[in-house]
Amino acid sequence: MWPRTPSKDDLDAEIRGHLALSIKERIERGEDPASARLAALKEFGNVTLTRESMRGVWRYRWLDGAEALGRDMRFALRSLLRARGLAATVVVTLALGIGANAAIFSVVRGVLLRPLVNRDEDHLIYIGQRAPGLGAENLTFSIAELNDFKARITTITAFGDFSTVDFALSGLGGEPRMVKAGVVGGSFFDVMGLRPVLGRLLNPNDDGPNAAGAAVLTYRFWTTALNSDPNVVGTTIRLGPRTATVVGVLEPSVPYPADTEIIANVVTSPHHLGATMVTDRTHRMTELFGRLAPGVSLEAARAELTAVHTAMVREHPEAYSKRANVQLRVTTLRDQIASPARTILLVLLAAAAVVFVIACSNIANLILARSVRREGELAVRAALGAGRGALRRTLLAESLVLCGAGAVLGVMLAQPFVAIVARYAARFSVRALEVTVDTSVLWVGAGLAMGAAVLLAYVPRLPSPHAPTGLGLVSGSVRITPGTSRRLRVFATTQIACSFVLLAGAGTLLTTLIALQTAITGYNMRQVLAVDIPASATGADLGSAKLIDFYQEATRRIGKLAGVEGVAVGMSVPWRDAGRLPAVQFAVEGYTPADGEENPHARFRVVSPRFFAVVGVPVLAGRDFTDDDGGKSDPVAIVSQSVAQRLFPNGDAVNRHMWWTDPYFGKTPVHRRIVGVVADVDDEKVIRRPAMAVYQPVRQIGAAERLFVRAAGDPYALVPAVTRAIREISKDQLVERAATLEDVRTEVLSPDRLNAFVFSGFAGIALLIAVVGVAGVLAFSVSARTREFGIRLAVGSAPRHLLSRVLQEGVLIAAIGIAAGTAGGYALSRAAARFFATVQLPGLLPLTGAATVLIGAAVVASLMPAARASRVDVLQALRSE
Amino acid sequence: MAKRPDDRRLELLQGTLDMLILRTLQWGPQHGHGIGQAIRAQSDDLLRVETGSLYPALHRLEKREWLKAEWGVSEANQRAKYYRLTATGRAQLSRERDRWSQLVDAIGRIMNPAPASKE
């Protein structure tokens, strides 16, 4: 226990006690009390002054340490200014490590941990249906299923439903365009616990087929597209064929399940009022939200929902096939929103932590090397009476100055880092859009810096008070002890090992990306322009004669434009429209599925004549569609090579019949004659797999909505002419998202590219730091062994020999690091596999690539020190000590 | 006891007061007045410690935890602070004693060089 600081009374009492004793002594010697008292006071001297100097002893007790540290800091600053190169390296290295960590941590906090703005958000749950048998992660719900839940569930006070549709929006200024919109029931906003910033939101009065069309604008749309126009409420807008009144603006909130511009009531979407939507149990397009009843736990609600769902599956076996294996999933809304980003963010956090470890071990290296050079100075100071504490404090002051500077720079770097990482994470979770740099960055930065500073202060060994320091004192030059050299090598090896893990990870992502980017797709990538021409704006119904005529006229006019080699309509832009159209069950004449086997599935596609020629897919057998394959002629189809090979192994597909067996096509499906076989292409996945597809002529179906133009020259030069040609036929027709197939693929791959980019960034930083680290260790080891090299040269060693010795040393550090990295990385992936479903070990190529890069980097890093070793001047070296 | 002439008194050497206090307290706990008197008596009245130096020194030693203080009642029937040597204080005393004898030895050699040195 520390002695207590005495109070003023204590001090006075002590002085009074002294005087009393002094007086008593004098009286005992025979003086009279009055003069004894006077003499005692006189002998004591200035009472106040004494009391104050007693107090002074205690006064700066707490400040003492701080003051000394401040003095040390000033000293550290001065001595670091003399070692600018080292200081700059340390500060920048640390800033990168701290900046990356602080940024990733802000995003993790913003996306995974922060509560939503919704009222009582912990009561808000998301209900999902997945069908692992069909590979469907989120099947959503049909209205029939929703009604079952509403009728039977008691643990949830209310359900909210949301489905996403595309509307052609006009009436809010500008050209008509396709917007993503939510269609919701009247309970949705109340369940979500959201408020309007303007007007009102939708309520149960907006439900049903007889309500007036009403729409709510999302905050982002209102502020960005409409400049926060306060008079927008009451505006009438057109949503395709229907109209709606803008009733209000939603408060800023996480746009989930979809980032829409408007949210409208059911009456605005004819589809939502149709019989299929209302009665078909398998027509699933609704996302389901619920608000837990007071006092009900998530587990209780999950148990009840699961029980009801199980009963539902039992009662309607036709809607839930055994193969689909439909399961219910219940989570809080916050977890649901965060879940896609969780893995990637945690991986990024780990990568940032690895970078920090590398940065710290590099700095430890530099500091250690510096402190060895300073051994002489430290020995002098120890000899002059500086205690271990004081020496440690000197080192602490220095590392505090360095790490403090690094933290300040790191927090400044965090700002742009957060922007990059947030944009990146927004692809996985919409919440990342709202992430900004918050004060937590400061705390993370400060915490990391403090941790690093203390760690670094304890890296160097102090001159022992017991061991003689005479040598360091006398020579004042570098003495490298085996212990120091071992520590330096351990740090360098750690850096290499960590860099290797990051490089291998980045390499894996890069090889995947390159494989995707260069995969042969079977399409003509460069010359084909794909354009969206959605039908809903014109009011022409899908399948109508009007629409068929429109396609006919559009292709005729565009085909005549200069520079157009061919034009066709289709139904799906490769990759961009992936997932829009599900695979459908069908049957063919002459093929009976084996017992227990279901009918095969194929992609349902509608194309016009010349489509295959335009996109560059060869017709392998039979013929292409012609303009004569119309509504009045024989129903026909073209199948992909996979269908032909699998169902007609004898190669006699042409002229056989196929028909769709899905109930969506009615009870008595049309039998179509197969007139041709085309090569396989995969419009869902960039890496082509054998795809079963059945094509039908647009003139027999009347739904296409995508235009494909093959250009002789620059495809984008045709866009204005194509748009004009279409608008001449139908002035309201939307013409959107024109892009070559090459660019469509690039756009689709951008998340993969971003993944690779971010990881390569981390790996690059790590590599850079590791190179600096290895070079530093070797440079240090060379300069410490100048004498040894001098002797070697003197006894006849060739300079070349010394050069290769130092190079070998560098390569050895790298090799041990790589081995450690491989072992560590393998252990890490095993540990990660326990938490994440898919942990992919890197292939041989990324591993050898990373190893080669690191060995190369080690050689480069060793070159300069090695050259210096081989150029050591013998006389100088021998005299140097 | 007759008063000795003032010029017989010696100035305390810089840095020796702490050692004298520690040494005095080796015999047992004592208050400030007693310590001052003991130093004076043991030095045959040659050394007198000013209270203005003694008390701040006592507090400094207490703060360094070489001494521990307790309140007690003095011979004058007054509250007085008694100082006691701690274990670290004892160790410090032995260090200072060593240094002191080295110093005396070194100064002694300079002032009275031995007739035949080693070299």
Textual characterization of the structure:
Chain A has 881 residues and is of the alpha+beta class. Chain A has five domains: 8-59; 72-116 and 340-479, no CATH class; 140-325, no CATH class; 483-517 and 741-881, no CATH class; 538-733, no CATH class. Chain A is built from 28 helices and 21 strands. In chain A, the strands form three sheets. Chain A has a six-stranded mixed barrel with strand order 2-3-8-5-7-6. By secondary structure, chain B is of the alpha+beta class. Chain B has a single domain, classed as Arc Repressor Mutant, subunit A (Orthogonal Bundle). Residues 1-5 of chain B have low confidence and may be disordered.
Instruction: Name the CATH superfamily assignment of chain B.
Output: Winged helix-like DNA-binding domain superfamily/Winged helix DNA-binding domain
In what order do the strands lie side by side in the largest sheet of chain A? Answer: 2-3-8-5-7-6
Question: Hey, roughly how much beta strand do the residues of chain A contain?
Answer: 5-15%
Specify Rg of chain B, calculated over alpha carbons: 17 Å
> What percent of residues of chain B adopt helix (DSSP H or I)?
40-55%
Query: Which percent band covers the strand fraction of chain B?
Result: 5-15%
- Which structural class is indicated by helix and strand composition of chain B? alpha+beta
Provide the number of structural domains of chain A: 5
How would you describe the shape of chain A?
Answer: globular
Pattern of helices and strands of chain B: HEHHEEH
Q: How many structural domains does the protein architecture of chain B include? A: 1
Radius of gyration of chain A: 39 Å
Low-confidence stretches of chain B: 1-5
Based on helices, strands and strand pairing, what is the structural class of chain A?
alpha+beta
Distance, first to last CA of chain A: 49 Å
Main pleated-sheet profile of chain A: 6 strands, mixed, barrel
